[in-house]
Amino acid sequence: MTSGCGAPEQAAALPVNVDPSREVVLTGTVRSGGIPVGGAFVRLLDSGGEFTAEVVSSAGGDFRFFAAPGRWTVRALHRDGNGETAVDARDLGLHSVTVALA
Q1: Domain-located, residue 51
Q2: CA 82 to chain centre
Q3: Is residue 17 part of a domain?
Q4: For the chain: N or C, fewer Cβ within 10 A?
Q5: What predicted TM-score, i.e. pTM, was given to this entire model?
Q6: Residues 1-12: pLDDT tens digits?
């Protein structure tokens, strides 16, 4: 299912065909006051701040990106606030991220 902007909605579980030891997976949750926030637009920005991808957080606030190794910024936009966090994902594997809205 997709949102009105065309960004795919997310689920908490990784697809069975994903092997985090062979790729970079940025996965996390959008939260406001410690509570998961669904329906947030979550953007992946490269090390230069350029837009790379966007997904919509699931009802449980979950999101996921598959990325190249490097330094990334994950930004969440929601009617309850915005937030962002930097991610150092230079190594393959699962990289957990929490984005707190303010």
Answers
A1: yes
A2: 13
A3: no
A4: N
A5: 0.83
A6: 444 444 454 555
